[in-house]
Amino acid sequence: MPSPLLTSCSIALTNMMVANISGDDAVAAMGIVTRIMTLGTYVVFGYMKGFQPVAGYNYGAKLYTRLQRSIYLSRIWATLFCFLFLHHN
């Protein structure tokens, strides 16, 4: 996960560039879009954080086939969510 300092710097630079090119309305629009996209990002991060104990348990129990299957399904679900979230907005 990126550090909050780098995230803040990148948002500040983006806002400065957008303000120079398009003005205050564009900066406000960027803020709205960023907040909406952050909601989707938090859902995926939460899903992956919840998946970590499942992966750890299966790895520790040497259930490698089950681990591979769960990783595969998690990728499918996360990708499907991202696709639907992006195309819904």
In short:
The protein is mostly helical.
Helix-strand layout with pairing:
Elements: H1 4-22, H2 24-60, H3 64-88
Helix pairs in contact: 1-2, 2-3
Write a structural description.
The chain is mainly alpha-helical. It has one domain (4-88). The protein is 91% helix and 0% strand. The protein contains three helices and no strands. The protein has helices at 4-22, 24-60, 64-88. Helix 1 (4-22) runs antiparallel to helix 2 (24-60) and helix 2 (24-60) packs antiparallel against helix 3 (64-88). It starts with a helix and ends with a helix. The mean pLDDT is 90.
H/E topology pattern = HHH
Q: Calculate Rg over CA atoms.
A: 18 Å
Helix percent reads: over 70%
Topology, number of strands: 0
Task: Provide key terms for this protein.
89 residues, mainly alpha, elongated
